[in-house]
C-alpha cells in the first residue's frame, strides 16, 4: 500500500538515493515504453488544450473565447506550477514496495483520466474549468515521476539517445494528438474518452512491465515544513547553470505557447478559415510537423551523444523555431502556415530531445537525492509560461484589435532570446 504523505515525508534520505540502473532487454523495454507513455501524454495535452477545449469554450461564448481560453490556461497553470515540484519532491521521499515513482504515475493517470472524461459532459465554462484543473493537477503529479526515471535509471552518457527517443515520442504525440482531436472535434465525448482511456491504459502497462525495485528505508529525520519549503529555492548564484537552463526553457516556452495556445483561432481569424476547415487544417499542419520533428528528435539525440554536445543543438533549435515564427508574418496564408509547421517541427523536435538531457546534467549536486524535486522545478519553466503567455497574448490581442501578427512578433522575441540563455552554461558542452 502506498504510504500517506506524512509517512513519505518523514523518510528523508541522509545520503544520495540508490541508483536503479537497467541493462539489456529491460533497458530497451524501459526506453520504448517510456517513449510511448510520453507520446500519449503529449497527445492528450495537445489534443485537449489545442483543439477540444478551444472548440468547447468557443461554443459557450464565441465573443469572449480568447479571454476565456486565456483564463483557463492561467488558472490551470497556477495549479500545475505548484503541483509539479511538490509532487517531484514527494516522489523522492516515497518508499513503497513498488518503488518511488510508480505509485505517483499510476494514481495520477487514473485520477486524471476520470476528471478528463468528466470535462466532456460539462455544459458551462465554470464546470469545464473545475474538472480540467483537477485533471491537470493529477497529470502534473504523474509527469515529474516519469521524467525523473531518466535520471534514476539511465547512465548520464546514454541520456542523449534516451532523451532523443523520448523527445521524438513527445513531439510526435503533440502532432498525433492534434490530428486525432482535429478530426474528432465534432464527437466530443468520444474524443475526450479516447485520450482518457489511452493514458490510463498506457501508464498501467508501463508500471506493470517496468517493475521498479523497492527503495529501502533510510533513517528518518524529523519533518520540518519550513525546511521542506526552503528546499525549493535553488540559489542562482550557487547554481548558475541551473538558473540559465531554467531561463532558456522559460523564454522559449513563452514564445511557443503564445502561438500554440491560439493556433486554432489564428487559423480562423488571421488566416481566414471557417470553423470546420480550421479544425481539419490544424490536423493537416500537425501531420507536416510530425514528419519533421520525428527525424529531428531522433537525429539530434543520436548526434548529441555521438559528439557529447548539448548546447549547440539547443541553440540552433531555438534559432530555427524563431525563423518558423517569422514566416506567417511574411506569408499570412496556408502556405506560410505550412512552412511554419515544417520549421517548427525541425526546431521543436531537436529542442525537446536535447533539452531533456541538458536538464538532467545541470541539476544541483546535493546530498539529498532530490532529482525529482529539482526536475519538477525545471518543469515549472514550462508551466509558468502557460500562465503568463496566454494572458500576455489576450492583452496584446485586446490592445491591437485582434491582430494576431502581434502574437508572432512577441513569440519571435522570446524564442530568439532563449537561444542566448544557453550560451553561459558551463558544466555542459
TrEMBL record:
PROSITE patterns: MFS. Residues 31-429 form the Major facilitator superfamily (MFS) profile domain. The chain crosses the membrane at residues 36-57, 69-90, 102-119, 162-184, 190-209, 242-265, 285-304, 313-331, 337-363, 375-397, 403-425. It comes from Asticcacaulis aquaticus. It is a multi-pass membrane protein. It is found in: Membrane. This is MFS transporter. Keywords: Membrane, Transmembrane, Transmembrane helix. It holds the Pfam family MFS_1.
Amino acid at each position: 500500500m502506498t504510504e500517506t504523505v506524512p509517512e513519505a515525508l518523514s523518510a528523508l534520505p541522509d545520503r544520495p538515493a540508490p541508483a536503479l540502473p537497467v541493462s539489456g532487454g529491460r533497458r530497451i523495454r524501459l526506453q520504448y515504453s517510456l517513449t510511448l507513455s510520453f507520446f500519449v501524454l503529449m497527445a492528450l495535452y495537445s489534443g485537449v488544450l489545442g483543439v477540444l477545449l478551444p472548440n468547447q469554450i468557443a461554443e459557450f461564448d464565441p465573443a469572449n473565447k480568447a479571454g476565456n481560453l486565456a483564463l483557463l490556461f492561467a488558472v490551470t497553470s497556477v495549479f500545475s506550477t505548484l503541483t509539479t515540484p511538490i509532487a517531484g519532491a514527494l516522489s523522492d521521499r516515497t518508499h513503497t514496495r513498488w518503488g518511488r515513482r510508480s505509485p505517483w504515475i499510476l494514481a495520477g493517470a487514473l485520477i486524471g483520466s476520470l476528471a478528463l472524461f468528466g470535462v466532456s459532459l460539462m455544459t458551462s465554462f465554470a464546470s469545464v474549468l473545475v474538472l480540467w484543473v483537477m485533471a491537470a493537477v493529477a497529470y502534473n503529479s504523474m509527469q515529474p515521476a516519469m521524467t525523473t526515471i531518466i535520471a534514476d535509471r539511465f547512465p548520464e552518457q546514454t541520456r542523449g539517445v534516451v532523451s532523443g527517443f523520448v523527445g521524438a515520442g513527445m513531439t510526435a504525440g503533440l502532432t498525433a494528438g492534434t490530428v486525432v482531436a482535429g478530426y474528432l472535434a465534432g464527437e466530443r465525448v468520444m474524443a475526450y474518452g479516447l485520450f482518457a482511456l489511452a493514458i490510463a491504459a498506457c501508464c498501467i502497462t508501463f508500471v506493470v512491465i517496468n517493475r521498479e525495485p523497492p527503495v529501502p528505508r533510510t533513517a528518518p529525520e524529523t519533518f520540518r515544513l519550513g525546511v521542506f519549503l526552503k528546499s525549493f529555492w535553488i540559489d542562482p548564484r550557487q547554481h548558475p547553470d541551473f538558473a540559465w537552463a531554467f531561463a532558456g526553457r522559460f523564454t522559449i516556452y513563452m514564445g511557443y505557447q503564445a502561438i500554440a495556445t491560439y493556433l486554432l483561432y489564428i487559423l480562423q481569424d488571421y488566416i481566414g478559415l471557417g470553423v470546420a476547415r480550421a479544425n481539419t487544417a490544424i490536423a493537416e499542419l500537425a501531420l507536416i510537423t510530425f514528419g519533421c520533428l520525428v527525424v529531428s528528435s531522433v537525429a539530434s539525440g543520436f548526434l548529441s551523444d555521438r559528439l557529447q554536445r548539448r548546447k549547440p543543438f539547443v541553440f540552433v533549435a531555438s534559432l530555427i523555431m524563431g525563423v518558423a515564427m517569422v514566416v506567417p508574418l511574411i506569408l499570412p496564408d496556408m502556405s506560410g502556415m505550412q512552412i511554419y509547421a515544417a520549421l517548427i517541427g525541425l526546431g521543436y523536435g531537436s529542442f525537446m530531445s536535447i533539452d531533456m538531457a541538458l536538464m538532467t546534467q545541470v541539476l544541483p549536486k546535493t546530498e539529498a537525492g532530490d532529482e525529482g524535486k529539482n526536475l519538477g522545478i525545471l518543469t515549472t519553466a514550462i508551466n509558468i509560461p502557460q500562465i503568463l503567455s496566454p494572458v500576455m497574448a489576450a492583452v496584446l490581442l485586446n490592445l491591437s484589435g485582434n491582430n494576431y501578427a502581434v502574437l508572432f512578433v512577441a513569440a519571435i522575441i522570446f524564442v530568439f532570446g532563449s537561444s542566448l540563455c544557453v550560451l553561459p552554461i558551463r558544466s555542459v558542452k
